[in-house]
Amino acid sequence: MSGMTGAEAMARTLIGGGVEVCFANPGTSEMHFVAALDRLPALRGVLCLFEGVATGAADGYGRMARRPATTLLHLGPGLANGVANLHNARRAGTPIVNLVGDHALGHKPLDSLLESDIDALAGTVSAWLRRSSTVDGLGTDVAAAVAASLAPGGTGPDRTGTSGAIATLVVPADLSWSAPARLAPPEPVAAPAAPSPVELDPVAAVLRSGEPVALLLDGTALSGPGLRAAGRIARATGARLLSRNWPARQRRGAGVPLTEPLAYRGEQITAQLTGVRHLVLAGAREPVTSFAYPGRTGRPTPAGTRIHALPADFLEALADEVAPGVTPVVARLDPPPLPPGELTAGNWAAVVGALLPEEAIVCDESITAGLTTLHTATASSPPHDVLGLTGLSIGQGLPVALGAAMACPDRPVVCLEADGSAMYTLQALWSHAREQLDITTVILNNRAYAILRGELDRVGAGAAAAGLADLSRPDLDFVSLATGLGVPATRAWTTEELARQFRHALSEPGPHLIEAMLLPGA
Amino acid sequence: MSGMTGAEAMARTLIGGGVEVCFANPGTSEMHFVAALDRLPALRGVLCLFEGVATGAADGYGRMARRPATTLLHLGPGLANGVANLHNARRAGTPIVNLVGDHALGHKPLDSLLESDIDALAGTVSAWLRRSSTVDGLGTDVAAAVAASLAPGGTGPDRTGTSGAIATLVVPADLSWSAPARLAPPEPVAAPAAPSPVELDPVAAVLRSGEPVALLLDGTALSGPGLRAAGRIARATGARLLSRNWPARQRRGAGVPLTEPLAYRGEQITAQLTGVRHLVLAGAREPVTSFAYPGRTGRPTPAGTRIHALPADFLEALADEVAPGVTPVVARLDPPPLPPGELTAGNWAAVVGALLPEEAIVCDESITAGLTTLHTATASSPPHDVLGLTGLSIGQGLPVALGAAMACPDRPVVCLEADGSAMYTLQALWSHAREQLDITTVILNNRAYAILRGELDRVGAGAAAAGLADLSRPDLDFVSLATGLGVPATRAWTTEELARQFRHALSEPGPHLIEAMLLPGA
């Protein structure tokens, strides 16, 4: 044990707990942990140029690996920079272990320049939060953090199922640099608690009633097995399959049962659910609108629709009961044809759908550009996974792509990014290049916060206000931006150009970026 | 009053309180405020592509205007993205009014996707925090926020003087869109409380004692009048003048008394203060180190040095007592000669010092690249103001430059940015271009988090760890990055190239960026 620091004890415990990657933007108070990474290659440090990249990458990693990455963040301001993407991760139910360095215990009362209330910040996004107080306890603390990240209890889609949680450990610098008397034995990571038994009969009765039923799927109900179970139920009973829009992770494409995504606006959801007598929430929450509007309800489920809840983990048992021996209807492999002409909000998605490679991981932050088109365009593409904008805090797509590619180095990652959202955490591209990851980013450049344009129209605002949703003056040039960050980039104005560039990007190793210029208003 | 929304009442009250600029990154819950801006051109909306740009710009604006700008932030995640630069602003004692939109009151219990604990986040950086609860109270709430931002009580350099504070008002969307029955009369903004009388005699006695005295200046003691008073005292009594490093705002250059900046490291500060019998803190706090290190003290003032406190506002009265009729020694106008050759960490600052225009505002986030050289190189340049990295949370320089230029459109702004720090909030360049501000940014590209390299050397880390402080692989190309954000950019490898490009940038209106390539290790 001689020469081991507390920081090294932490790193060894993380490795013992199955953690392999640390997305880091360290500072002085984390230098001993950085030094420990040097000695322990089993825990790989990935440098990020901004903390929101690190936390978003940990989200993408956790969604694909289904176990935590760790982040390494520098005091309160470093954590603050990562909070927005931790918010998204919290809504996704992603397991993450945040390590936040703090000042040495004796230094805190001095209120030195970087001192701030780390605990209050961490509390807003963490299901588990601890401040280490002894160097000998560091190993135990880290093991507890890993276990907590894998336990249910987050505020992700399925609070009762197997989704994970955000665990934050605040580590005073003096504990990191001190020598522990003993290394805490890596605690066995607790298996997620078995879900409590659920009474399936009422839901089964609803499904057999002959009345119109829809299943709304989220969480693990959107995994391959979950969707197959749902598909069996749908085929046997005629139930409709709805899915949460912008899911944490959804299996899609050829061989997978199709779902109909829940609409974005409340009035659209109400129309969508009109006539549905029973809405079964399989790992999902009751639909609520993202925002309130004057005179409109935030709970758009029609008054005549009865709501039933079913943990996603019981979907297969339910299928065995109501659809024994039934095979689900699945999407055929039948990608859309390449559309011709200038790129628009209406046709770009078909190019992606036509060329999407097998087992792609699609990180979808296309927002308005993809809201109504992407789902359809990729329904009959080869099988793939889609990772969505779970918490509506923009700036997660490029970091999530980084993490997903680290978790699945053998799968192609396709990142679909709206222009305004891309600008939040564009620094992620540099890490794409540094790690030479197979990520193809398509920037959907409509020169606007298009979603805000729609909102401004709703409130009747005029020209000057519309300027605050306008991203031209000056135009953003994503080819130059990507080049500056080390990612080869091209620009496409037509579907043919996008197709050629997309094929090329997928055929070459390493990251690429394509700026897709969408005709304004189209 | 017909047709007026709560949002418009807020905007009118801000205008009545002297607020002229709103640095905004709005979302759906802020659309009615955006619409109000449309009708009220006296409150100018400046769009920022990331909230950290908006809050940093409000910091720069407040430091120069000495009155608040307002920010417009979107719910908890939007505020979180702005927290790091609010941390810096808090340490600077800058007046800022944050308007944070929240969900409508009835919508909050639905826990919709963007719901989070705004109040906990805001509490970490706000001296004043209120959540509006009635539309008729909005005007009063906003007036109180403006007044609070101008009251002392922040944690800036001079807690007893005239520095401002961060006031955050959380505004539920339904209050913004509702119609108030009455418009609250704009409350008169309370004048900052007159400082309590201070007993000057003990400090005067110290200064007359003949024992070695140093004045450590911060806050308003670093203003032109404050420095002249300090200079009179120094000339009359032989006291040394020290200044906080990275001040919120310091007057410097020809005609201004010189100060010796406090060193960064504790052992350097101890050496600097050795032999000083009395340290008079004029608007300053006792020196503490930024970080703790094993076996070193965080309070580096030598044991034999007695500390005395004096609010900065009493510096002139003290000068009248101990230095009546005395004229201070001031810096002559004598810029350094242009150094020849390849650019290094040691010579770039002399180029800036040689060419700095009169009344420049120097936003200094050069960190290690400028720590030991910039102060000397610009000491005899034309008179100017320097705005420093007050809270050590990197990513404030480019946003602060945006705000300073908005506050002082007739003054040239020079932004000196380390490469790693620039990448935190690079989006600010786009707002530089959009507003066509006279900002010349010099990126000091040493391809490293150089400050971390130094820290890693201290802990004896090896090559892999050093990779986490390395910003090459791939090299950042700031010319491409600036071009992509609409700012004309050039690259300089030699002092001659930097001089030519710097002159050109200053001679043309609008923003420019120069990437200064510093020889590694030099």
Automatic annotation (TrEMBL), chains A, B:
Sorted keywords for this record are:
Thiamine pyrophosphate
Residue ranges constituting the Thiamine pyrophosphate enzyme N-terminal TPP-binding domain according to the UniProt record? 4-109
Cross-referenced InterPro entries, in alphabetical order? THDP-binding, Thiamin_PyroP_enz_TPP-bd_dom, TPP_enz, TPP_enzyme_TPP-bd
Keyword Heme assigned to the entry: answer is: no
Q: Name one GO molecular function term.
A: thiamine pyrophosphate binding
Q: Which residues form the Thiamine pyrophosphate enzyme TPP-binding domain?
A: 392-515
Q: Which domain of life is it from?
A: Bacteria
The answer on whether this UniProt entry bears the keyword Glycosyltransferase reads no
Q: Which Pfam families match?
A: TPP_enzyme_C, TPP_enzyme_N
- Return the CDD domains for the record: TPP_BFDC, TPP_PYR_POX_like
Q: Which family does it belong to?
A: Belongs to the TPP enzyme family.
Q: Which NCBIfam families match?
A: PRK07586.1
- Protein's name according to its UniProt entry: Acetolactate synthase-1/2/3 large subunit
- What organism is recorded for this protein? Pseudosporangium ferrugineum
